[in-house]
Amino acid sequence: MSSPSVGAHRRRMIRWGLVLLAVVALGGLIGYLRRPAPVAVSVVPVTVGTVERTVANTRAGTVKACRRAKLSPSIGGQIAVLPIKEGDRVKKGDPLLELWNDDLAAQVTLAVQEVNAAQARIESVCARAEVARRNAQRLLTLRQSNVGSEEQADNAVAEADSLVAECHAARIQVQVADARVAMARANLARTRLQAPFDGRVGEINGELFEYVTPSPLGVPTPPVVDIIGSGCFYVMAPIDEVDVAGIRVGMPVRISLDAFANRIFEGRVKRVADYVLDLEKQARTVDVEVAFVNPADLDDLLAGYTADIEVILQVHRQVTMVPTEAVINSRQVYRFLEPEGRVELRQLRMGLSNWDQTEVLEGLTAGDLVVVNLDAAGLKDGAAAVRREPAP
Asked: Residue 263: how many CB atoms within 10 A of its CB?
């Protein structure tokens, strides 16, 4: 039999053991209740696809016509003929506008008549010169036979030479008269505007019987007629100087227009400007011109449309990629370990990247889950996490 002291000691040990267990249990309960709530994370799977490196314009670009002419007469006057209206289609050479020019038309008529008169004088003077030449030749022949006087022969020769000179002068006078006709017609042409190419009338700044005046030096005035060529358009857009170095003629381009919100047009770089634009209080840019690839697209375009371009510099296909919004410091992501209910910070080796996707060379495999709501409170390496259900 055990002594009473041994039994009492054993009971005390049991009581202290129970107290200790209760304290441990209570501490565990308090720790459990005070633990941080799991971070609710939005996740997307790592996928395999195409990643492109692109460059976009810094300010809005503009659709421009390949051919556009803003025309005004080179002299002032009153509009006498205006056979067109805005929106009309015109062919090359079609009349667009004519100023009052009766005086200049009369000068052309006068110059033409002067040519006719000079031509008639040629016929008269040159015919007389030919007769005088034959008479002089005949007198010289008779003089060799001692028939007739030497004075008569000399006078005949002098008269023939004089008439030949008059004939030559008359021919030159015709050339002068032809030049006057050309000058009169040129002056008359300055009162007329003709379409320089096929196109559409974009704008008319003038009405019938109004007066127009040419622009003074250094003071531009609106053109009277604006002709926009049809069937050829391109986009001009500014690219930041730090991005333009990689752009080359012929590179593929995606074009988007505000007028066609859900449509992408295919293009190619056709020209990179040879200088940098330094506009006040704005970044320095270089203009890039992009041609439309599909001729059918041109039927839907209007000069002046707002346009944006995305030049495709490099393409990698069938590569592992993650959303760019999930990338931290260009080389890290939070990977969600769903069975363990936590996240881990992964170091990656990256490849190409754009606004949407980033290529992963090492560190993840297709199907891994990465966190995209990087602003979630409590998100850190090793944090407990649960998948946040998408909004309904």
From this structure: 11
Q: Which residues, listed in sequence order, are joined to residue 229 by a DSSP beta bridge? A: 199
pLDDT of amino acid 238: 93
Residues shown for the chain: 392
Two tokens at 154? 């000399």
Give residue 157's pLDDT: 67
Distance, in Å, from the CA atom of 204 to the CA atom of 207, rounded to the nearest integer, reads: 8
Q: Supply the pLDDT for residue 9.
A: 67
The DSSP element (H or E) to which 198 belongs, if any, is: none
Residues 6+ apart with CB under 8 A from 120: none
The closest of 95, 368, 56, 389 to 238, measured between CA atoms, is: 56
Residues β-bridged to residue 290: 235, 269
**Residue of 389, 332, 314, 327 lying closest to 358 (CA atoms):** 327
Q: Which range, of 87-96, 219-228, 324-333, averages the lowest pLDDT?
A: 219-228
Model pLDDT for residues 12-47, shown as the tens digit of each residue: 777 777 777 777 776 666 555 555 688 899 999 999
The model's pTM is 0.64
Instruction: Give the number of other CB atoms < 10 A from CB of residue 28.
Output: 10
pLDDT at 174: 82
Whose CA is closest to 328, among 370, 297, 268, 294?
370
Class of domain 51-64+231-387: mainly beta
Beta-bridge mates of residue 306: 62
Selection from 111, 130, 85 nearest residue 173 by Cα: 111
Other CB atoms within 10 Å distance of the CB of residue 280 = 4
CATH architecture of 69-97+197-227: Beta Barrel (2.40)
Query: What is the Rg, in whole angstroms, of the alpha carbon atoms belonging to the chain?
Result: 47
Structure confidence by residue, pLDDT tens digits, 134-180? 766 766 665 666 655 666 666 666 776 776 777 777 788 888 888 99
Residue type, 307: A
